[in-house]
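Lab meeting, action items carried over

1. Structure of the two-component assembly. Owner: GW. Status: complete.
Input record:
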Amino acid sequence: MARIIVVTSGKGGVGKTTTSAAIAMGLAKKGHKTAVIDFDVGLRNLDLIMGCERRVIYDFINVINGEASLNQALIRDKNCNQLYILPASQTRDKDALSQEGVGKVLEELGKDFQYIICDSPAGIEKGAQLAMYYADDAFVVTNPEVSSVRDSDRMLGILSSKSRRAETNQEPIKEYLLLTRYSPERVKLKEMLSVDDVQEILSLHLLGVIPESKSVLNASNSGLPVILDEKSDAGQAYMDVVARYLGEECPHRFIDEKKGLFGKLFGSR
Amino acid sequence: MSTDPRQLHGAAALEIKTSTFSVPTLQLASNDLEAIGQQLRQTVEKAPDFFIHSAVVLDVQALNNKHLPIDLKKLCRLVRDAGMFPIGIRGGNEEQNSLALKLAIPNYSTHHPVVAEPTKTKAVPPKQALGSIPSVKLLTLPVRSGQRIYAEGDLIVMAPVSAGAEVIAEGNIHIYSSLRGRALAGVPDNTEARIFCSDLQAELISIAGNYQISSNFTAPKGKPVQIYLQDQSLIIKDI
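Predicted assembly:
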C-alpha cells in the first residue's frame, strides 16, 4: 500500500505547490515510485512548477468521471522516471471532486506507487478537505508570521477530526511542520517569528526549515522543482526534509543567520 | 532472581497512567435474551477479527428507561459465549451496578465524552446519581484553533489550547500547558467552578457566565494561576 501524504496549510501562497513538487521529486530520486496529485481544481499550478504544462491531456476529474484511465492521465516526469504527475482540471471547480471518486483514484494509485503526494488547495473547504481526507501523513506548510500560523493551527484541528483515520478511529494522521520562506536576518530584526515561536504555538514535529530564497522563484519559472537545484539553499533544505521523513538523522540547517567571511573571522554574533 | 535494592533505585517497578481507549458498547434495546444471543452471534460472525476477544461495555440505560428488567448474569454469559469480554456497565440502576460489581464488572457513568458540535447547550446538567463517579474529560492532544470542546463534568487538557479554540466545561477546567484560546468553566451557572492553567495567555476566561477578555486582565506569563469567582468578579491568583 502506498503512503498518502497531504501537503496543506490553510493559508494560500505559503509554498504548498513548491513543497509538493520538491518532496515528490526528492522521494522519486531516492528510488521510490511516487505520484503527485494537484487537488487545486480550477487553479491548476502544479503542472507549471513541474514543467509539464504542455503535456496535459487528461486530468484528475476525467479520471474520477471515468472519461480517461489513470494511465492516460498520469504524466511521467521528464527528469525522473519514478515520478508521475496527475494534473488538476483547469476548466472545472472543486464541486467536480467527490469523496468516493477521490478514494477510488487513490486506491488504484496505491496498487503500484509507494508514495502519493496530495497538493492541497488553500482554504478549508471541499478541495482542501478531500485532499487530506485519505492521508496517512500531513506536511503542514507554514510561513513564520501570525496569520499563517493560526491558519495552520486551524488546519491541524481539521486534520485530527475530519479525516478517514479520525472517522474510523484509526491511528491519527502523522503531522509534520514545514517552515517555509524563513529568513534568519528578519527573525533577528523581530520582523518574523522564530522557529521556536512557531513551535511553541503549534507544538508540532519540525520536519524542516526552508529558507527564503531566489532559487525558489527561479525554479518555478523554469518548471524544475527546486530540489533539483542542488547548489541552492532551498534545494538542500528540501533534500534534508525528504531524508528526515525517510528516517535519516539530519541536523537542521538554515535556521541561523549566514555569517559572512568577516563574521567567521571575528566570530561576531 | 536478584532483589538487589540498588537495582530498584533506577526505575520504578510500575507507573499508573491514564490512557483513553475506544471500546464498543453494547446498547441494549430489548431484554429478550434469546434474541440478544442470536443477534450477537450474527454480528460477531460478520466481523470476527473485530469482535472476537474484544472488550465491551454493556449499556442498559435504554432498558432501564423502559423499565425492562434484565438478567445480568445470563447476559454476561451470552456476551462471553459470543467471544467478547464485558468490562463495564453503563446506565445501570443501583441493583444492577452492585450485581455487576459482584461479577467483577466496574460501573461507568452515562455521560457521553465527545461533544464537538458548534452549539452551546443551555440544558441543565443532568443530576448525577448518588455514588457514581463524576465524569471527567481528559485531552492529551493540543486543542487547535477553531475546535470547540465541551465537557459535562471537569475538563483536563494536557496540551496547549490554541488561540481561536474554545474549551467549555460544566465543572472545572485544568490546563497543564498554555491557554491561548477561550476557557469557560461552570456553564451555565456553577459559580464554584474554577479554571487552573500553567500559562495564562487566554483571549477570554469565564466562570458561570462572568467573563473577562484579555485586554482587561493581566497575568504573569508562564506562571501557573487559578481563576475563581468572588462576588461576581473573576479573581486571578498565582498557585
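2. GW to write a short summary for the group page. Key points so far: Chain B has two domains: 25-130, 136-238. The two ends of chain B are 46 Å apart (CA to CA).
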